[in-house]
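Predict structure. Chain length: 140.
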Amino acid sequence: MKKDVLVTVKGTQVNELGEEDTIELITKGNYFFKNESYYIIYNETEISGMEGTTTSLKAEPRRITLNRMGSAEQKQVFEVNTLNISNCVTPFGTWVMGVIPSKVEVDLTDMGGSINLEYELNNGTEKVSDNRLSITVKEV
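Prediction complete.
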């Protein structure tokens, strides 16, 4: 099973002052099931600030692995209550990014579905923001 899909990515960031910033990306992508995991692959656009980058998501029942390749490079794992640290490499520099998810919800079938994440973002030592990320996949 490999399908062309419409991928909607909605991310909300809440800073220490309670101010919210939300971006939404709707793009075409690929979706398939392999070795007990669903995969979502799509190209980032100017909206996300990572044009020229391909994002791959590996969705397991309790873990999401994000892998970015291209103008930005990063591998980030999301597991509930587990601090995962990664390096984010961009044309503007490299920074350390840590995530501590409080919610990793995977509701995917062969027809599509959704991933919902809630996590604290930090710079390796200090909290930067609270974040929500919602990814939906629909057949084209």
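Summary: The first strand starts at residue 2 and ends at 14.
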